[in-house]
Amino acid sequence: MINVRQATMQDLPSMQNCNLTNLPENYVMKYYFYHIASWPQLSYVAEDPKGRIVGYVLAKMEEEPGDAPHGHITSLSVMRSYRRLGVAEKLMQQAQKAMVECFEAKYVSLHVRKSNRAALQLYSNTLKFTEQEIEKKYYADGEDAKKMILNF
User: Fold this and answer.
1) Chain-centre distance for alpha carbon 133
2) In sequence order, which ranges of the chain are alpha helices (DSSP H)?
3) Which residues contact 86 (CB under 8 A, 6 or more apart)?
4) pLDDT band at 60 (very low <50, low <70, confident <90, very high)
């Protein structure tokens, strides 16, 4: 059984490992630290029965003047052997719930590679995000991103 809980500073190396193993967009440790220190309520990890981190969601609040308070999913990753078990959905739901309860967020946004069919399926069909726009050459390798939002 998978346990989803709030991420702690001690989880950061395992979260980074999950990111490096699964995603082409990688972050320095300082970036994870910034998220946990600034918005400790919003990032979550998924643990297997032995306590190993098998997935995470790294989230934050956007602070744009004149815009409604809203969250942003910086990164979501689940180890390959734990995919298609609802782990990503549980992680996302926890982060979204915390955005609303702690910060009165009105919506959440994220970016996803246009070529990432599995993630697009998760966000569009399972989590009910809608595509807002295409951001050309958003990623370092030049690939376009779909900006997606979910209103609360």
Assistant:
1) 19
2) 12-22, 29-38, 87-103, 117-121
3) none
4) very high
The CA distance from 13 to 17, in Å, is 6
Strand, coil or helix: what is 38?
Answer: helix
Parallel/antiparallel/unpaired status of strands 107-113 and 70-78: parallel
Cα–Cα distances in angstroms (integers) from residue 58 to residues 10, 66, 93, 126, 137, in the given order: 14, 24, 12, 19, 22
Q: Which helix (H) or strand (E) holds 86?
A: none
Q: Does residue 75 contact residue 57 with C-beta atoms inside 8 Å? A: yes
Give, in order, the Cα–Cα distances in Å from 71 to each of 55, 79, 82, 96.
19, 24, 26, 8
pTM of the model: 0.90
Copy the structure tokens of residue 106.
Answer: 């009105």
CA distance 30 to 131: 30
Name the token pair of 40: 């400790």
Is 71 within 8 Å of 103 (Cβ atoms)?
yes
What would the pLDDT profile of 73-105 be if each residue is shown by its tens digit?
A: 999 999 999 999 999 999 999 999 999 999 999
Tally of CB atoms within 10 A around 50: 6
